[in-house]
Amino acid sequence: MRVVYMGSGAFGLPTLKALHAEHDIALVVSQPDRTAGRGRRLTATPIAEWALDNGLELDRPDDVNDPGVRERIHSIGPDAMVVIAFGQKLGPELLEGLPAFNLHASLLPAYRGAAPINRAMMDGCDETGVSVIALASRMDAGAVFATARLAIDPGETAGELHDRLADLGPGVISRVLQGLENATLAPERQDDSLATRADKLSRSDATVDFDQPARLARARIHGLTPWPGCDVLVDGRRLRLLRVRDEAGDSGEAAPGTLLENGAVACASGVLHLIEVQPAGKKPMSFEDWRRGHQVAPGARLESVS
C-alpha cells in the first residue's frame, strides 16, 4: 500500500521500520528539529533521523495543516495515513478523504492523553496495551479498529514498558491495513463513560508517598522512571530511586519512609526494597553500594522531594 507516515517520537520507530519493509512509504512527516542537550544543538526527531538515514522523503512542517503541506499530502494519493506520537493536531481539511489510523499506547477508552504509559503504571495497573483508532476532534476518542494487550511486569520501568508496547505497533497496524485493503474493518465506538485521563507529566509529579501500600509506591516510582524521575533525601543527600521491589510483610513500629535493619523502607503496608539508585550528578548504582559508601544507618528517613 501507498502510505504517508506521521510521527516524531521513538514509540513509532518499530512500526515505521515494518511499514518500510512491507509497503511504499511515500512521505514521512515529522516535527521540525528542536534544540536539545546542554549544547542546545538542533536535533532531529527519532523518526526524522531514521527517515533521513534510510532515504525516505521527509517533510518537517511547523504546521501540518498549512495549505501547502495539505496539498502535497493529498496529491500523493495515499491509501492510508499512519499517525504515531506526531505532536500536532490534524485538522479536518487535512483528513478529508484519507483513511487515517492512530496508534495510542493504552487500551482505550482508558488513559486518553499525553502520558498513558506512565499513568497506567503509576496507578498500579496490571495490564495495558495499544489501540489503533480513527482520528477524531476530541483527543483519543475515535473509533477503535484493533487492540493488543500486554501484562505489566512489576519489575520494569515506564521506559522499558514503552519499548515493549512500541513493539506491538507493527502487528496491530498490519492487521488494520489488511482490513482496509480487504474492506473488512469493523471499528467499535468507545464508551465515553469509561474514559480516563492521562495528563502530561511534569516535574511536580516526581514525588512518592511512603504512607501508602508498598505496591503502589513501587508502581509510582517505576512509572516516573526515566522521566521526570523520583528523588528522595536520605540524611540530607539527594538520591533518585530508579528500581525497587515491593514485599508484603510487617515493618513493625517503624514510621513510613524509615530505613529498616534489612535495608528496606517501611510503607503503610509492606516494605520497599531499593534495588537501583542514582546519586545527584553520578551514574546509577545498586542501593547497597551507595548505602555502604555513605554509611547510612537503619532509622534514617527518606523524604520525597520534587
Quick recap of the structure?
The chain is α/β, with parallel strands linked by helices and 306 residues long. The protein has 9 helices and 15 strands. A hairpin with a 5-residue loop joins strand 13 and strand 14.
Provide structural commentary.
This protein is of the alpha/beta class. It folds into 2 domains: 2-194, Rossmann fold; 203-305, Formyl transferase, C-terminal domain (Methionyl-tRNA Fmet Formyltransferase, Chain A, domain 2), CATH 3.10.25.10. The chain contains 9 helices and 15 strands. It has helices spanning 13-22, 46-53, 67-76, 92-95, 116-122, 158-166, 169-182, 214-223, 287-294; strands at residues 2-7, 24-29, 34-36, 41-43, 58-59, 80-84, 100-104, 127-134, 144-151, 231-234, 237-247, 265-266, 271-279, 285-286, 302-305.
Using the CA coordinates, give the radius of gyration.
Answer: 22 Å
Share of residues in strands: 25-35%
Q: Give the overall silhouette.
A: elongated
Specify the CATH architecture of the largest domain. 3-Layer(aba) Sandwich
The CATH class of the largest domain is: Alpha Beta
Strand order of the largest sheet: 5-2-1-6-7-8-9
CATH topology of the largest domain: Rossmann fold
Count of spatially separate domains: 2
SS class:
alpha/beta
Give the ordered list of helices and strands. EHEEEHEHEHEHEEHHHEEEEEHE
The CATH homologous superfamily of the largest domain is called Formyl transferase, N-terminal domain
Assembly form of the protein: single chain
Low-confidence stretches: none
Which sheet architecture does the biggest sheet show? 7 strands, mixed
Which whole number gives the mean pLDDT?
A: 96
**First and last CA, distance:** 48 Å
DSSP E strands, number = 15
Helix content: 25-40%
**Count of runs of 4 or more consecutive helical residues:** 9
